[in-house]
Amino acid sequence: MFPMEESDQIGSRPIEVLMVDDDANFVKIVEHHLQRYQAREFHLTWKERVADALTELSKNSGYDIILTDYNFPASNGLDFCLRLNERGLQIPIIFLTGVRDFKLAIDAMKLGVEDFIVKEDLPEAHLGKTLVNVLERIRTRRQLDAVEKRMTMAEGRAQAIKELVVTLCHEFNNPLAAIKISADLVERMLISPDDRVLLEKFDDSFKKIEGEIVRLRDLNFERVEYGRVNATDGKRNKSG
Question: Model pTM?
Fold first, then answer.
């Protein structure tokens, strides 16, 4: 499960949190811990059941993060994650559960859950900071994925350009070879001094053309494309 497109633009606005838990008292405890975190402001929306949370998300999918319990009367947290995945809702999830179960944590992570906090450990979990760290981790992951995607595209473009250049060089080399042979034949003939000077100039120009073709053929197109990617990333970082 991946973050929303807007997660990179959270900035200093309140972090929108959807909490799904059937224990009203625990929800108040969570609110208290979030309010204690002074570095950021959180806006928490509470839903008691998974069905209510899904209805809310169908109306408003602009939440930055979801906190959910595991045990519900008619469902569970894993089923909730599956339903979110089926709907294509790319919102990071943190499990807050009373179950200290390693297998459950692994199953949750496989479904894209970003973190797993046991309720009794909440005082030591620094919940507000954990939420911010999760969002920052996702933001960094998205940036790395974007760079990797651009690098892959650059490799493809570089290979296509290289193949085109090799073809063009081959197309140039054939007529140039014929011209070179003809020039050699002319040079062996008895020609005037003026014609010989002209032929020498032609030979110099011919060698320059050959050199440019070789330079073009051996050009490192991967380096050129990577340079473009790095330059683009540099401009984005400066503008950010």
Answer: 0.61
**How do residues 35-88 score in pLDDT, each as one tens digit?**
988 888 999 999 999 999 999 999 998 999 999 998 888 888 899 999 999 988
Sign of CA dihedral 139, 142, 148, 151: negative
- Rounded to whole angstroms, the Cα distance separating 125 from 97 reads 13
HSE-CB for 237 with a 13 A CA cutoff: 10
List C-alpha distances in Å: 70 to 21, 80, 85, 136.
8, 9, 16, 24
Q: Do 225 and 157 contact (CB within 8 A), yes or no?
A: yes
Residues 6 or more apart from 43 whose CB is under 8 A from it? Answer: 14, 15, 16, 17
| Across 97-108, average pLDDT | 84
**Structure tokens belonging to residue 136:** 């920052």
Options 3.40.930.10, 3.60.15.10, 3.40.50.2300, 2.40.110.10; CATH for 5-125 is: 3.40.50.2300
